[in-house]
């Protein structure tokens, strides 16, 4: 089968079928001499088109070995298969012989082709060498061309630089000659001088940082100033002659404005011509190459259009003084209205800051979290108001700036600084602030102000006191520096007068704070006295809760006042102030002293003895003005509270235990309140009067032992 498989590759079509194996040619068996050439070149186009796809055709394009072997095994017997194997062997040997013959016949051609190829390779190497030489020559030529081009470009650049230097020298020469030309043309050809100055003005202004250009610019300005004076004199003379001819001033002003408008429109049109135009679709068209950069454009716009506008405005004011006076009056009125608006803005700002302070004081505090303290609120309020006032002064100062034309008017050099700014703005605001702060102390019914919390009264009192000490003098000094008044100007409000108003407001606020806090403590004491049955009360075993609350409130007030005011001076206390005995008898009616004469037939007149004691005791002024320190404030509050307790006790009738309860309460207050007062004798004196009044109003005046009173107070 292996032989059959190998031989099958040489068979073809019908001639290669098993039935043809018996044929031979010249005794050599079955052979197709043109088979190899046909297999090499393939079948012709006509044969390929006519032949149907045959998978068993060994020479066909559709040959399939599996199909061919299947067909041979199924159709040929063993003898034919063997015969076919022998035929295929012969065919293979014949093909080998043909190949050798073909090789021998074409050997010389192969040798000559090999020599030809070798020569061609040698020639090709020579050509490559020549191409390399040619490329090197071309590179050298390119380098030479580049050097020549660079030399030409350098020469062109140097030529352009030389041309630029020559043009610059010509311009510099022209600039140097500007003062001479202006001086020569100013008398004979003013228009030509103006055109020359207009052309050179922008360049001179751009390079004025150089000394030589600054000198040329200064000389040119001096010449043009003289020319402007002559032209103005000529114009003023012409206007005066026209007015003498009874020409209407309105027509002259309209003609002047018309000519000025024409000139300004021409300069504005020249500037607009350099801007890119917009097409119909709304998008900007491609701008032409700018004649100058943006800085030069802005410089020419400010020097030409704006400068001309200022000159025309000045000329109009000088030619028509009546209109200038009306314009000055209009500017002055606008300035005054602006200052009034700033004053109202300051007042609104201060009220807003006060609202923020009241909101911060009234805001609930979560447990364990403290809000802003009074010093922080005071610092924020004072800094905000002072900063806003300084900002307003900076805004108002724009009316007196040097670059403002109307700042040179006499009104803005004298009356505006004093009457409008210092008096109408600064002094008016300080006085309004003091009146507003004082309004919180005058009461809602009297001034229409809302009821203020005590902490706000204390804070405003400290603010007014700070204004009296330093802020007012600082504000007035700053105002006088920014708006210096004239020596011969109107009178101004002196600083001490404003400071006195601020101190009066602070004093009124602090007095009202003492009255409010004293009234709050007194209200507790009054209710505790009026709502108790002093005849039927039991024997005292504790200090009443209201007395503890009084001490707690006085302590809280001490902390609050200490945040904003200094400690103050206390009178030297005795060594046993906190342990001093509190008796229902005064020093002139001690029990031991009067015990021998105390009999039913000769009763002791306690009311008379109390009045005699008052004659020799120091008078206590309850509602005296307080000083600006913590001790004085607390003393005032304690005096109001204990005076209220005294008056309430005088109106009650007490039993024995009621008197003893007053004795215990008074001793408890003496133990704690003396340290808050400026003089412990004030507290002791008022409490002695309370005890004396209680004893006088008692039906059975039997006091409690002092040791028992101390024990109850220490336990309570």
From TrEMBL:
Pfam family for this entry, one: VPS51_Exo84_N
Localization (cell): Golgi apparatus, trans-Golgi network; Recycling endosome
Keywords carried by this UniProt record: Endosome, Golgi apparatus, Lipid transport, Protein transport, Transport
BP terms from Gene Ontology: endocytic recycling; Golgi organization; Golgi vesicle transport; lipid transport; lysosomal transport; protein transport; retrograde transport, endosome to Golgi
Keyword Cell wall biogenesis/degradation: no
GO CC list: cytosol; EARP complex; GARP complex; membrane
InterPro entries, A to Z: Vps51 (IPR014812)
Region of interest: Disordered: 1-41
Keyword check for Transport: yes
Subunit organization: Component of the Golgi-associated retrograde protein (GARP) complex. Component of the endosome-associated retrograde protein (EARP) complex.
Function: Involved in retrograde transport from early and late endosomes to the late Golgi. The GARP complex is required for the maintenance of protein retrieval from endosomes to the TGN, acid hydrolase sorting, lysosome function, endosomal cholesterol traffic and autophagy. Acts as component of the EARP complex that is involved in endocytic recycling.
Family affiliation: Belongs to the VPS51 family.
Listed name of the protein: Vacuolar protein sorting-associated protein 51 homolog
Lineage: Eukaryota, Metazoa, Chordata, Craniata, Vertebrata
Gene behind this protein: Vps51
């Amino acid at each position: 089968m292996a032989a059959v498989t190998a031989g099958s590759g040489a068979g073809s079509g019908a001639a290669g079928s098993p039935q043809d194996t018996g044929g031979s040619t010249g005794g050599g068996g079955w052979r197709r001499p043109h088979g190899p050439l046909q297999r090499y070149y393939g079948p012709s186009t006509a044969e390929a088109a006519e032949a149907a796809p045959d998978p068993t055709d060994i020479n066909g394009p559709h040959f399939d070995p599996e199909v061919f072997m299947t067909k041979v095994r199924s159709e040929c017997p063993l003898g034919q298969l063997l015969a076919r194997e022998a035929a295929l062997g012969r065919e293979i040997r014949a093909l080998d012989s043909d190949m050798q013959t073909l090789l021998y016949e074409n050997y010389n051609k192969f040798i000559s082709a090999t020599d030809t190829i070798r020569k061609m390779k040698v020639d090709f190497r020579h050509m490559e060498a020549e191409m390399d030489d040619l490329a090197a020559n071309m590179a050298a030529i390119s380098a030479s061309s580049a050097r020549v081009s660079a030399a030409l470009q350098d020469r062109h650049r140097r030529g352009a630089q030389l041309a630029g230097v020559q043009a610059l020298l010509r311009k510099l020469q022209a600039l140097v000659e500007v003062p001479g030309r202006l001086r020569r043309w100013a008398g004979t050809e003013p228009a030509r001088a103006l055109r020359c100055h207009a052309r050179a003005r922008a360049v001179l202004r751009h390079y004025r940082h150089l000394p030589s250009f600054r000198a040329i610019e200064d000389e040119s300005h001096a010449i043009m100033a003289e020319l402007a004076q002559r032209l103005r004199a000529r114009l003023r003379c012409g206007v005066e002659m026209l007015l003498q001819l009874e020409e209407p001033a309105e027509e002259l002003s309209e003609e002047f404005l018309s000519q000025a408008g024409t000139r300004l429109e021409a300069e504005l049109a020249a500037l607009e011509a350099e801007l890119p135009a917009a097409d119909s679709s709304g998008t900007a068209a491609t701008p032409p190459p700018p004649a100058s950069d943006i800085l030069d454009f802005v410089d020419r716009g400010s020097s030409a259009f704006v400068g001309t506008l200022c000159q025309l405005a000045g000329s109009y004011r000088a030619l028509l003084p009546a209109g200038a006076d009306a314009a000055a009056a209009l500017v002055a009125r606008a300035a005054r209205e602006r200052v009034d608006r700033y004053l109202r803005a300051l007042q609104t700002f201060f009220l807003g800051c006060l609202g923020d302070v009241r909101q911060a004081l009234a805001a609930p505090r979560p447990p364990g979290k403290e809000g802003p303290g009074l010093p922080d609120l005071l610092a924020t309020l004072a800094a905000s108001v002072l900063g806003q006032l300084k900002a307003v002064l900076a805004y108002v100062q724009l009316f007196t700036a040097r670059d403002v034309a109307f700042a040179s008017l006499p009104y803005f050099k004298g009356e505006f600084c004093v009457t409008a700014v210092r008096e109408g703005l600064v002094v008016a605001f300080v006085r309004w602030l003091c009146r507003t702060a004082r309004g919180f102390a005058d009461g809602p019914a009297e001034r229409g102000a809302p009821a203020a919390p005590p902490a706000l009264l204390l804070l405003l009192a400290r603010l007014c006191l700070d204004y009296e000490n330093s802020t007012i003098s600082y504000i007035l000094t700053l105002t006088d520096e920014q708006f210096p008044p004239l020596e011969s100007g109107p009178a101004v409000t002196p600083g001490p007068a404003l400071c006195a108003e601020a101190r009066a407001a602070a004093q009124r606020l602090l007095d009202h704070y003492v009255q409010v806090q004293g009234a709050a403590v007194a209200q507790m004491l009054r209710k505790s006295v009026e709502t108790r049955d002093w005849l039927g009360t039991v024997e005292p075993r504790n200090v009443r809760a209201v007395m503890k609350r009084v001490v707690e409130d006085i302590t809280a007030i001490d902390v609050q006042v200490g945040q904003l005011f200094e400690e103050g001076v206390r009178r030297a206390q005795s060594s046993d102030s906190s342990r001093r005995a509190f008796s229902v008898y005064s020093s002139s009616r001690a029990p031991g002293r009067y015990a021998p004469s105390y009999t039913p037939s000769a009763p002791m007149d306690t009311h008379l003895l109390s009045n005699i004691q008052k004659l020799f005791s120091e008078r206590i002024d309850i509602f005296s003005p307080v000083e600006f320190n913590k001790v004085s404030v607390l003393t005032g509050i304690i005096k109001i509270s204990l005076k209220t307790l005294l008056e309430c006790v005088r109106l009650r009738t007490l039993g024995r235990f009621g008197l003893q309860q007053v004795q215990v309460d008074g001793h408890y207050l003496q133990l704690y309140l003396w340290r808050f007062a400026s003089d412990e004798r004030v507290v002791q004196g008022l409490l002695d009067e309370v005890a004396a009044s209680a004893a006088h109003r008692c039906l059975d005046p039997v006091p409690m032992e002092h040791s028992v009173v101390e024990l109850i107070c220490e336990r309570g």
